[in-house]
Amino acid sequence: MTQTQGRNQCLSAEIPELSKCSVLMRERCRVEETIYNMQQTGPENLQVISDFDMTLTRFAYKGKRVPTTHNILDNRLLIDENCTKKIKKLLNTYYPIEIDARLSTEEKLPLMVEWWTKVHKLLMEQKIRKDLLAQAVRESPSKLREGYKMFFDHLAEQNVPLLIFSAGIGDVLEEVIRQNHVFHPNVNIISNYMDFDHTGVLQAFKGQLIHTFNKREGALAHAAHLTELKGRQNVLLLGDSLGDLTMADGVSNVQNTLTIGFLNDQVEERKELFLNSFDIVLVKDETLEIPNAILKNIFRTPRCSKRT
Length: 308
What we know:
Helices cover 41% and strands 16% of the residues. By secondary structure, the protein is of the alpha/beta class. The protein folds into two domains: 3-58 and 143-299, 3-Layer(aba) Sandwich (Rossmann fold), CATH 3.40.50.1000; 65-139, Pyrimidine 5'-nucleotidase (UMPH-1), N-terminal domain (DNA polymerase, domain 1). Strands 1-11-10-9-2-5-6 form a seven-stranded mixed beta sheet, with helices on both faces. Strands 3-4 form a two-stranded antiparallel sheet.
């Protein structure tokens, strides 16, 4: 038996969750070798980069779609019924385009900018009050994935930076994490943040628009400012869209990258595309069981380095 085969057998025994039928991998040996390398260098060399909506949050719960950070604003405290109808119409128009496997990223880009710009314009017209955001989050059915507390807490305990990169609404995202009691000091967020006037009323959105397919630009722009990420050359990346794969482009001198894709919708149409793009594909998995199992393995003392 070769050294690599021995390592992979050891990892298969240590992470039995990877054998679940909902876990797909095109190159299992490469996945296991990457996890092994990450384990050898330990948590001090690791950083985690993740999307938020439909990645750290559930896609659905008890047969109903879970709201994204944009959808959480669909509350009569914040927006009126007419605005709700317009935003829903935009969702029904543009979301099928976002996940259409037949269209290229280049074809989708201008349409995503169009979608986000229209939604933000509608929200600004509603004069949303900052002091009502927390209540809107409390009243929403938003849910983080099962296992979220272990995920956030273990990363904090091991001092592993968690960079959340979201095309959603940063103010709402922060409130969701805060109300779930997992907003630890190791969490950094790049997202679309609201700009409130001196009375606490929404007047604009700050900075460059972040949408599903321009995260590479955001990653490169923000990388230099996140000094706590420097020197961490192993990246665990979580996302639910092909656009999320560019979130680590700002990381310098990467040695090992492991990507996990949550395939939530249109499974058969997008399965092949996801398998060709992500190292691990999780099919209709509403939990963080697999990321947690991988992190647990990376955080433990290496056991198999001498096995052949």
